[in-house]
Amino acid sequence: MSSITTKSSSKSSTKSSALQENVNTAPVANRIVASDKRLINCHQVDVNQLMPLKYDWAWEHYQNGCANHWMPTEVPMHKDIETWRSDKLTDDERLVIMRNLGFFATAESLVGNNLVLAIFRHVTNAECRQYLLRQAFEEAVHSHTFLYVVESLGLNEGEIFNMYHEVPSIARKDEFEMELTREVLDPAFSVETQAGAQAFLKNLIGYYLIMEGIFFYTGFVMVLSFHRRNLMTGIGEQFQYILRDETIHLNFGIDLINGIRRENPKLWTPEFQQAMIDRVRQAVELEIDYARDCLPRGILGLNADLFRDYVQHIADRRLERIGLPAQYGSSNPFTWMSETMDLSKEKNFFETRVTEYQTSGTLNWD
To answer: Is 148 a catalytic residue?
Structure first.
C-alpha cells in the first residue's frame, strides 16, 4: 500500500512540476500586470481579470457595498400605514412625500439603466466593473423600495410612476440626465477619441456628482425631516439605508472621475472644466425649482428658500471633490442635519442603528 501511495505522490509531484514550469515559462506578454490596467481604453477586457488589483479604492467600495446588504421588505410599514390613513399629515406634507416618491421611483431606474447600458461598457477595469455590478443590484433594490412603499400605503401607482411625464420639475431633471445616456448609447460613440472620452466623463459627472450627489440629497432632507419628527418612520428608515448606499456610490463615482482625470490629463481642459461648472450650476437651478414644487407653502422647518442655500452648499462640496472651484459660498441652513447629512460630518450618520445592519464585517469610514 505504501508503494502505491509513493508512486501516486511521485506522479502528482511530476505533474505539478510540469504545470509550474509551463506557468513560469509562459510568455510574459500573455500575463496581465497591474501597470497594464486602465480605467478606460484598456483593451485587455476579454475577462474581468481582478488580480492583480490596481485600484484598491474600487475594491474597497465593493466590499463596503457587500457589507451593507438590505432589503426593503425587512422594514415594517404598519406605523406609516396608520399615519397615512389618519389626519396627522397636512396636505402640504403629503405632497412632499408624493413628489419625492415620484422622483425617486424614476431616478433610480435611470441610474440603473445608465450603469448597465452605458458606463459598464466603457469602464475597462475589472475591479471597477465588480463594483458597478454591485451598484446595479443596489439600484434595483432602491426601485423595489419605492414599489414596496407605494403598495404598502395603497397609493395610486399610475400617479407615482408617471410623475416623470406629468410633473414638469421632475421631467426637467430626468431629461437633463437622460440626454447624457442617449449620447453615450449612440452606435458611433467611442471613448477612444478626445471628444468621446470627454462625453463619457460628462456622463459620469452628470450621474454620480449631480444625480446621486445633488438631486438625491434634497429628497433625503425632506423625507428625513419626517423621520426626525417620528412620522413616516418606515419610509425614513428605508431612506436612511438608501442614503448609506448613495454615499458609497458617490464616493466611488468621484474616485472614478478623478482616476480618469489623472490617467487622461488632456481631457481636463479649461473649456471642459468650465462646461462642467456650468452644468452643475444648471442642475442647481433645476433642483431649486423642484424644491419650490415640493414646498409651495413650506412645512415645519422646511421651505424652498432654505433649499436654495442647501443645494448651493452641497454643489460647492461636490465641485471641490473633483478639483473645481466652489461657486456659491452658501452654508448649510439645516443645522439639525449636521449629524446626518452635512457633508463634512456624513460619517457620523452611520453611527446610528442603520449601520448595525450588516451582513458581515465592520464598516470603517476612517
So the answer is: yes
